[in-house]
Amino acid sequence: MKNSLLVFGTKNFNNSLNEIKEYFNFPLTFYEKNDFSKSLITNASAILIESDFCNSDEIFTLINSIRGKPVLLFANQTSSDNKCNHNKKIFLPLSFRDLSNHVKNLITSVKFNQNSSIKIKEYLIDKNERKLMKGNLSLTITEREIELIEVLFNEPEPLSKIEILKKIWKYAEGVDTHTIETHIYRLRKKILDKFKDDNFIINSKTGYSV
Asked: CB count, 10 Å around CB of 193?
């Protein structure tokens, strides 16, 4: 699948990237405040953010809700400090080639890390060893449980049982919402027994989240 980028920036920043977008060799989508949906984040391979764009409380909250996507923060020497979550920070100006390489290397690096481990809250999931770890404690979990945690973690909003059914079980024959409830109940009990944590998977009126 071809990489695609979602850009959060001021009008001038977006315009400057739009003028050189052909140098990226992958499509760019620019965030517009009056036309935004979760699908923009879900479908993007990486997120590009202008540092000064994080000053808005609304944008700060939105950007810090992004999960499972590599985030590249653009800054210059006069940019104000901010606490927007990001994987890598680069300073402008830089060449088209360097900019494109930064993006491609970040996507590759994050994808590699996601294939081997996931950090969630104070926990680390080792996907190769199938272990959920916190401090000196570790818990063996199944591939399905890893997939369930990963799906919940990568979504910015809680998922309903139907959405989980669609994403993980693909509406497989013989699988219904009771199956999901059973899997989540067993996983939550294992985590509670090992880590004394009853809030790793949160059940709200709108669905499940981590």
From this structure: 10
Query: CA-to-CA distance for 100 and 24, rounded, in angstroms?
Result: 5
Contacts of residue 112, defined as CB under 8 A and 6 or more positions apart, other chains included, come to none
Residue bearing tokens 């491609």: 104
pTM assigned to the model: 0.50
Mean pLDDT on 39-47: 79
Q: Are 44 and 29 in contact (CB under 8 A)?
A: yes
C-alpha 150/C-alpha 136 separation (Å) is 22
How far apart CA 70 and CA 64 sit, in angstroms, is 12
How high is the pLDDT of residue 201?
A: 94
Other CB atoms within 10 A of residue 52 CB: 17
**Lowest-confidence segment of 22-36, 97-111, 187-201 by average pLDDT:** 22-36
Q: Which domains are assigned to the chain?
A: 5-115 (3.40.50.2300), 121-209 (1.10.10.10)
Mean residue pLDDT of the chain comes to 81
